[in-house]
Protein 1
Amino acid sequence: MEPYRIKVVEPIASTTREQRREALVRVHYNLFGLRADEVTIDLLTDSGTGALSAAQLAACVSGDESYAGSRSFLRFHRAVEALTGYPHILPVHQGRAAERVLFSTLLKPGHITLSNTHFDTTRANVELNGCTALDLPCAEALDLDSDEPFKGNIDVARLEKALGGPEAGRIALVIMTLTNNGGGGQPVSMDNLSRAADLCRSAGVPIVLDAARFAENAWLVTRHEPAYRGHSPRQVAEEAFALADGCLMSAKKDGITHIGGFLGLRDAELARRCEQLLVATEGFPTYGGLAGRDLDMIAQGLAEVTEPEYLQSRADASHHLARLTRAAGISLVEPPGLHALYLNAGRLLPHIPPHQYPGHALACRLYLEGGIRSVELGSLYLGKEDAQGRPITTAPYELLRLALPRRTYTRDHLDHVGEVLARTAESADRIPGYRITEQPPALRHFRVKLAPL
Ligand code: F0G
């Protein structure tokens, strides 16, 4: 059971099917356009959508809002240093700001970054610096149905080849994303991380963690990596940070806060250069774009997020919803991770070709059917078409992500999602595909307009 009880509640929307049908028309079938009060269960993201603990709220009230050297910064610094071991810690307003500050400082045009899988903002920030982001996911990641426990791993053989290959001189950074959000929320094993770190050290290339979900990764390591069975998630997390040269962190995930993040570094000279950019663009180094109360709540959230009972209940919730999904006859990326389920919409809707966006079609139907908001991760997100709508590239899989906000929804809420999935699957053959009517030139999924076929 959940290791907490509820003290503060917020009403959620109850809408009629007709209201939801009208809302879909109004937002041109793009769920990012919905008002939050039109959504009953919001599974769009697990980022910044968690519930605060009483201890976090208390920390919020005791936040020190001094411009420089606040008590809140000192508490934040102590908490992050104790967890990561990095001597240089720069607060930032969220994960992508840490990416921008580090990449703008470290990368030069023409450089290459390697990763198990870059998250989309990470890739965008690499590319904005005139560099190339290359993903090297392990072969096991390609089989969505297999039960392999560490499908978030980097392909060590390809990493070794790249670091010793003709382009080696251009490789400036290796980024290990824990857990691998772009790759189905799958974890990275400690064995894989330590092999990657050894290769980077021999090649003289820095390795950093994209640590947004470090605690969830550590939990899965304690469950599935035999050498870590008796370890606590906190011990695994500390060891993971120790293997790297630094980290990029979005505290909106495993900091369990609504905003915030940090950049942690070992290298004093690199940290000094990053700090200069931070002062110019984020804020003074003892607040970095955050209020003192945010820093305090992150410090407390980082202490709570590795508690085994909390992580166990999070895993139980995701497994519960995974069972309901399978029982509805819908397959998902196996094994389910902790922060989200990735439903195989392509398999559920074989009558909808990739460039008519089966994942998006399923997202719209789940909203119409039960007020559930989710996000497509398929050819709407990753694909490209020519002016006539003919596909140029399609995504490898047509997925739909149901993200699970932290400490926010109860089993009853998840049971509602399960019922909606079951009803939706029963009439899956009547779900229409979509065509794009208008789209922006980049990051189209946020603002694209569509119409059903
Ligand atoms: N890295 C990973 C692995 C992420 O999942 C995200 C955000 C970021 C970096 C960027 O952090 O949002 O604080 O700037 N992921 C959210 C999501 C948006 O829904 O998966 P941010």
Protein 2
Amino acid sequence: MRIAMIGTGYVGLVSGACFSEFGVDVVCVDKDVRKIDGLRERGEIPIYEPGLDALVASNTAAGRLSFTTDLKEAMAGADAVFIAVGTPSRRGDGHADLSYVYNAAREVAEHMDRYTVVVTKSTVPVGTGREVARIIREANPAADFDVVSNPEFLREGSAINDFMRPDRVVIGAETERAQAVMRQLYRVLYLIETPILFTALETSELIKYAANTFLATKITFINEIADLCEKVGADVHDVARGIGLDGRIGRKFLHAGPGYGGSCFPKDTLALVKTAQDFGAPLRIIETVVSINDQRKKAMADKVVQFLGGDVTGKTIAVLGLTFKPNTDDMRDSPSLDIVPALQRAGATIRAFDPEGMHEAAKHFTDVLYAESAYDCMAGADALVILTEWNEFRALDLDRVKTLLKAPVLIDLRNIYNPDDMEAQGFRYSPIGRRS
Ligand code: UGA
């Protein structure tokens, strides 16, 4: 089997590398010459994802994975072409911007000279697959092809494992021929008995949005329960465990925090809200989730200020973690983007440390002092705030933390420490939804 993967962003590069690991010949194609040169000549991975560099290196060496800027070359002999280009939120109306997807479809049509399965891997609104088919037919009436939707369910930071050992694979493919090609591509997953669901195109497209918005709703639910816990003296950690052990609810995605961020949940919740409104079937739950989450990110700075006595003018706050979650350098829609500037506006000086995100963060913040390490960050600060649950922040030497901070004050927006332990250690400690 041979495929072309259009787009060497996060999804394209991870999917391409993983398919090649499955034994498929993969040619990744991108218009960005520098990116392709870097990948081809120096094995330079443009994103941070644990394990991806090794996977790319070994499959490139084995001759199964290659990179080009020439789509024609990439498509020569390909059984399938995956479209994995960006679908950012369109400015102004929140709809997904599909211009990259449709441009890719037009170019694919030009180079099609045998039966080809055209797969949308990018997260695309319901109806995009049909439009891709229409565009290809219009551009090349003689083309022999099927359009398939194959959404990804990869989490940044664990994307390779998510691809190799998924809970399920969803494939919107409506012809036997297309299904057969997809079955071949995912042959390895059949061997480990992964559920593989074949559906209609629109259904597959909607599954992706329904999955992400459901997870965003689950997080938002527990975040609101956390707020209630603080008022009534309950513990959100125990509530999450208590409800999550019910198999119908499940334990995952019930960690209260500063609000969800990242490149997917904020964008996808908004896009589904717009689609539903356009079709006259508004999703009021998701509309509410979007607004609660936006407010929550803003409210977190207030929580910090209140805990520090209501006035942070002239105080130095040490912030650990800037990315939207650990094991990534991704800052997109990170809660820190709301919290850090709000603390600055309130008069605080911010010192920050993030293991991977500081380069990206520097593009967003002004007047933040970046530290060399977690301990360097907190030296002489009035308080410590944990914004992202990187593993290295879970195991801080608390005696050292106490000696470095001006006063032992820790605001833990990810609940990575235990309130009782913190009290025993002599900290003034503020978790989320737990007794402090
Ligand atoms: C998410 C989905 O989990 C993937 O299945 C999906 O493929 C991906 O979007 C996508 O559409 O491409 P990702 O954005 O990488 O993956 O990150 P998550 O681990 O889902 O976290 C998203 C946000 O929710 C983060 O800000 C995280 O801190 C927050 N979160 C997550 C919580 O606040 N509590 C939780 O219990 C879980």
